[in-house]
Amino acid sequence: MKALVFHRFGSNDVLALEEVPDPTVRGPRDVLIRVRAAAVNPVDWKLRSGGVTRLFTGSKFPKILGSECSGEVVSIGADVTRFKPGDGVIAFPGFREMGAYAQVLVGKDQGQLKSIRAPRAAWECLLSRSPRFIARKLPAFAAR
After folding, report:
1. What is the predicted pLDDT for the residue at 120?
2. What DSSP letter does each residue of 54-111 carry, written as one string?
3. Model pTM?
4. Under DSSP, is residue 12 helix (H, G, I), strand (E, B) or coil?
5. What does each C-alpha distance from 59 to 54, 62, 97 come to in angstroms?
6. Contact assessment for residue 70 and residue 116, using Cβ atoms and an 8 Å cutoff
7. β-pairing, 30-38 with 63-64?
8. For the chain, is the Cβ count within 10 Å smaller at the N or the C terminus?
9. What is the rounded CA–CA span in Å between residue 16 and residue 48?
10. CA torsion through residues 66, 72, 75, 81, sign
């Protein structure tokens, strides 16, 4: 898979798009996610530049940036019950793990992942502007 990787702390020029091994589901709470979109946040460039953030990320390289993303569940660990392959999710791997600037990410089903069914329903309702559509669709999504 491709990922935005850096091998030392520094400015934007330390980032490189590289081929890296695909992650796999190893633990019972792991969720493998195909990343569809990743957010670019101030925390990402602060982590990339080093400084005080080394306390959070350590100095082991290479690193893949990205502290939040959205995507689709590809596979799950044995103890995962909230998600199944094909589900849309928002992932927050955190500052220590990061990894959202890659094609595939392993998240933990321990507060790092949220379903995107309800936000998608809200978006559909806003786009439709139809009270009848909203009354019919929103309760169905909220009940899931």
Report:
1. 55
2. HHHH-S-S-EE--S-EEEEEEEE-TT--S--TT-EEEE--HHHH---SBSEEEEETTT
3. 0.75
4. helix
5. 6, 9, 13
6. yes
7. unpaired
8. C
9. 12
10. positive
Q: Would you give per-residue pLDDT tens digits along the chain (144 residues)?
A: 999 999 999 999 999 999 999 999 999 989 999 999 888 888 888 888 887 667 777 778 999 988 888 889 999 999 988 889 998 888 888 777 789 999 999 988 876 676 765 555 555 545 555 454 444 444 444 444
Smallest CA-to-CA distance from 108 within 86, 91, 88, 84 is with 91
For the stretch 43-85, pLDDT in tens is: 888 888 887 667 777 778 999 988 888 889 999 999 988 889 9
Structure tokens at 56: 């959070």
| The residue to which tokens 């949220």 are assigned | 114
Give CA–CA dist 132/129, Å, rounded: 9
Nearby residues of 82 by Cβ (< 8 Å), 6 or more positions away: 109, 113, 115
Domains of the chain listed by start with CATH number: 2-116 (3.90.180.10)
